[in-house]
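[job 4471] stage=fold_predict status=RUNNING
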Amino acid sequence: MKRLFTLLSVLALCVVTVFGAYNIAFIVKATDSEFWQYTIVGAKNAEKDLQGLIKVTVYGPPSEADIDKQVAILEDVIRTKPAAIVISSTSSHATAPALNRAYQQGIKIILIDNFVFNTGYNSFLATNNKLGGGLAAEKVVEFLKKAGKPLKGKVGLISSMAGVQVLIDRDDGFKARLKELAPELEILPTRYVDNDIAKAMAATEDLITAYGDQLVAIFADNNHTGVGVARVLEERRLQDKIIAVAYDSDPQEVEALRKGILKALIVQDPHGMGYKGVMFAFMAINGEPLPTYFDTGVYVVTRENMDQLKWVLDPYLRKRY
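[job 4471] inference complete, writing structure tokens
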């Protein structure tokens, strides 16, 4: 890989000397989330490593709930005619017409994190989220056993948003694996919270009120839902009664893990998504073949191994620019 990038760099340098650096637009789902800031660290590290051959410009709506805003940003970006677009699309459908038009115009399209249907693209980089959801289920069962609890009762599932493929995969993976491991645990209907921490807190409160001691575990499928669940369990001192596992690694989630409020975090590699996403864009610009899908990996972090996995939990430690 290093030799390939060296060769591409030499070839690209000749082009850049004449035409200037390649412009790569990096569009995140939201600017209010540490997770997406971590991807930006990776993207900017890639820009630094390519030493002036590319210019990465970051865009994104304030919240993942702002789907229309992200589509508008994408439309504006396409009008600037960048050499490539690296995008974590909130919706699996809403950005498709614009992305497909950009692809037809020759703009290289790299999808990260969430797949978009009905569009041309050069490569898709993401976590195997069904596997990640399954790992969350395994941790729920493991910690219930450690707590000496029977594998019976009700399990809450709090999801950031409906209709987002990446979340659907996580939730499906969780449900399927939990059913295999503990068929007497009943998974309650999914609560959707518009990626809002306050709504995630309200949903957690509702579950506790409605099911009381029957509620034995909760799975939160992203960073904001994880933070919401953790806040309620800590305030009500229920961390030993309700086993909570969440996706992602915002600082508040990491602190909740350290306190034992959340029992495990299912963590992606957002730095890797950003870094490899930009590198793949650079390769696509230079006509190099790319895999249709690239698995960026998934990690299970607990209080016991969190210090060994700091590089995954805090990508700012890898910042080089």
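[job 4471] summary: The longest strand covers residues 153-159.
[job 4471] exit 0
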